[in-house]
Design a protein that fits this description.
The complex is a heterodimer of chains A (58) and B (638). Helix content of chain A is 48%, strand content 3%. Chain A has 58 residues and is mainly alpha-helical. In chain B, helix 18 packs across helix 19, helix 19 crosses helix 25 and helix 25 runs antiparallel to helix 27. The radius of gyration of chain B is 28 Å and the shape is elongated. Classes of the chains: A mainly alpha (58), B mainly alpha (638). The interface between A and B is large, with 41 and 61 residues. Strand 1 of chain A pairs parallel with strand 2 of chain B. Chain B: Its main location: membrane.
Chain lengths: 58, 638
């Protein structure tokens, strides 16, 4: 029973996460957001595909 | 284009400074030194193609916003990346206030070229600070730079720096403080400051040139120890025959290393995952959570994570080539070949960036001035094998290509097959560019003009940082998007349970099974079974997810001791060789990555091109897989 509850919670959270990502990708595809198209490849050091990203002071 | 610009944007919040300079003069290195960011730096022009924003707290305690901009030779922008710089500096962006001050970054070894932009910036009438960067290289070449004299000649403060070592950062921060204080005390805000920039005429350019010559004579000495090493190396590397041979040899070595160097760490990860799976098997009661962890997470995410060492070996090579200054040489070497299919020589760097990921590659195409050349480059960028396809290729190679040495024992067969797959992507990209440039995107070819940077020894810190960023990004993606997808796929592949008296494996009755069986007739002509059909759909999010899905789907119907071996072994047992070849062919062409399509839409500001890319490449992938499967089946039997 405990396993079943944990699985239901985990699957629901994962489905929510995927839904949110899909919404971001769809927004980027439709041109409604400037960011969101970033696949997180790390090739830019974390900024090339995210024009609005601000690096905090260190 | 208006001839004169007046600044109208209003700045609220902290003061803003912009980093402006010629390409490859160290702006991003300075940005990183000021803000603590880890933006990518490399030794070729065109690394930065978009504005980046960061913050730092000055010695006087002021929060300052700093904007890193793409390199440009003038505010007369010729390419989209230069337009970004022009628009930010002139305050033409509706969503962006104009910067209060400009830090002009120059390469101290190339002042004759760099100072023209400084003179142009001065005409804006805003405070300008000169960061005299790469002073260590100027000193090693015996170039005597009199910073005080240069400051007097230009009429602006000059601060010597070595950004990659963070030398001169404190004096620069002090100078920024002083400049902001002076601007504030004089009430010189961007809204009140006049903007004196007009597009320079031929006469203006001659004047700039004369002024630069006068300043050079006054403050800069000739190099007493010019570096001859770069010229000597270029005599070999830029020679068409030897240069191309060395380039091919380097690429070949890279693909061999991807297999041979990564083997041991991959085996360690594999062993670690098997141990964890064994512990869970032994210590946890049977149930849905146990199945989710072992079949969904370890079977799915684990089968993707295992490829991290291969990806890092690939990027180790790319990082070293980028830092050494070889990339620009490779662009020159391949300019003739690129020109043969109608591509611009500058297309080389965006295409090479696409081997990491098509998204930064497509953005790097901003350095190409001509729009039709840029579109052609963007359209073929997804055909360059991105790192997300590496797990797919190496899994199938591990399953179907024997670990054998060929060519008198010099070359490993798996590495050779991987090289052939990369070559297939490159050749098909060039073929498509050839067709596009002679039909939809025809136009005259423009010559390649590109600065060749001096060769530098790659800095271990930069190389390691680059690898760390890659590893972090890969693991974050594995731990978020891929993890979530695997959990959902596991649920779809596990429920509903098989009915009583079922004769087929339980997964056949699940939602994933139903989706797979529904799509199977569409994909059967190219040799794909229903399990592959299930793997292709979530591959839209990230291509390597296909490996994870296959891992989960097959884990639910089988259990093995070793993750990779069991999946590769199961594929070898379940798939025919024509199916495997068809699957590889699909992945050479398949455009199923939504992030790539999104960035194409954004960069070209059009829905037509991403749609053409998706349908064109999908048709090509299906057609090529069909031919591969049919030909292979008729030759070797299915």
């Amino acid at each position: 029973m405990v396993q079943t509850i944990l699985v239901v919670v985990l699957v629901a959270a994962a489905a929510g996460w995927i839904g949110w990502r899909m919404w971001r990708w769809a927004s980027a595809l439709l041109g409604r957001k400037r960011s969101g198209g970033c696949p997180g490849c790390g090739g830019c050091g974390g900024g090339s595909a995210e024009p609005g990203k601000v690096h905090p002071p260190r | 284009m208006p001839k004169d610009d007046s600044v109208s944007a209003r700045s609220d919040g902290p003061p803003r400074i912009a980093l402006v300079g010629n390409p490859n003069c160290g702006k991003t290195a300075l940005f990183n030194a000021l803000t603590g960011a880890r933006q990518k730096v490399a030794n070729y022009a065109g690394v930065t193609v978009e504005r980046k924003e960061g913050m730092f707290v000055s010695p006087a305690g002021t929060r300052v916003k700093v904007i890193d901009l793409p390199g440009t030779y003038s505010l007369r922008a010729r390419s989209p990346d230069e337009e970004v710089t022009r628009d930010v500096v002139l305050g033409r962006r509706a969503d962006e206030a104009v910067p209060e001050a400009i830090v002009c970054v120059v390469d101290a070894t190339r002042l004759r070229l760099n100072l023209r932009l400084v003179l142009e910036m001065k005409k804006l009438g805003r405070p300008v600070i000169l960061a005299l960067n790469m002073m260590d290289e100027a000193e090693s070449q015996g170039i005597a730079v009199d910073a005080a004299e240069l400051s007097a000649a230009l009429g602006i403060p000059v601060v010597p720096t070595v950004a990659i070592r963070k030398d001169g950062i404190q004096p620069l921060l002090d100078q920024i403080d002083r400049t902001i204080q002076v601007a504030n005390s004089e009430g010189m805000t961007p809204t009140s400051a006049p903007c004196g920039w007009t597009e320079p005429s031929a006469r203006d350019l001659r004047d700039y040139h004369a002024q630069v010559e006068a300043i050079m004579a006054q403050a800069i000495g000739r190099p007493s120890r010019p570096h001859l090493a770069t010229r000597r190396i270029d005599r070999v590397l830029l020679q068409p025959a030897t240069g191309l041979f060395i380039l091919l040899a380097l690429l070949f070595l890279m693909f061999q290393a991807v297999f041979s160097w990564a083997r041991l760490p991959m085996e360690l990860i594999d062993g670690g995952l098997s141990t964890v799976k064994g512990l869970i098997d032994a210590g946890m009661a049977d149930g849905p959570l146990k199945s989710l962890i072992t079949d969904g997470i370890i079977g799915g995410v684990g089968s993707v994570v295992i490829f991290l060492p291969q990806i890092l070996v690939l990027f180790l090579f790319i990082q070293i080539l980028e830092d050494s200054g070889y990339m620009a040489r490779a662009a020159f070497l391949l300019d003739k070949m690129m020109g043969g299919v109608g591509l611009h020589g500058r297309a080389f760097i965006p295409l090479l960036s696409s081997f990491a990921c098509a998204v930064p590659g497509i953005m790097a195409a901003r350095t190409i001035e001509n729009r039709t050349d840029r579109i052609a480059t963007i359209m073929i960028a997804p055909l360059m094998t991105c790192s997300a396809r590496l797990p797919v290729y190496t899994l199938i190679i591990a399953a179907f290509v024997p670990q054998r040495q060929v060519l008198n024992g010099w070359v490993g067969l798996p590495g050779l097959v991987l090289f052939a797959l990369y070559a297939a992507g490159i050749l098909s990209g060039l073929l498509i560019a050839f067709v596009l440039k002679r039909t939809l995107l025809s136009g005259a070819r423009e010559p390649l003009l590109m600065e060749l940077p001096a060769y530098r020894l790659p800095r271990p810190h930069n190389v390691l940082l680059g690898l760390y960023e890659r590893a972090r990004a890969f693991l974050v993606r594995a731990g978020t998007t891929i993890f979530a997808l695997m959990v959902v796929i596991w649920a779809l592949a596990s429920f509903p349970a098989a009915p009583e008296g079922a004769t087929l494996p339980a997964i056949d009755y699940s939602i994933a099974g139903m989706i797979g069986h529904f799509l199977e007739p569409l994909l059967a002509p190219i040799g794909f079974n229903w399990e592959i059909a299930v793997a292709l759909v979530p591959g839209m999010a990230a291509r390597e997810v296909a490996v994870g899905v296959l891992g989960t789907v097959y884990a639910l119907s089988d259990s093995g001791d070793s993750m990779r071996n069991s999946l590769a072994g199961l594929l070898a047992h379940s798939w025919s060789l024509p199916t495997a070849l068809s699957f590889l062919t699909w992945y050479v062409f398949a455009p199923q990555c939504i992030a790539t399509l999104s960035v194409v839409r954004r960069e070209l500001n059009s829905y037509w091109w991403p749609m053409a890319m998706f349908f064109g490449l999908t048709t090509l992938a299906y057609g090529a897989s069909f031919v591969t499967f049919r030909v292979a089946s008729s030759l070797i039997g299915s």
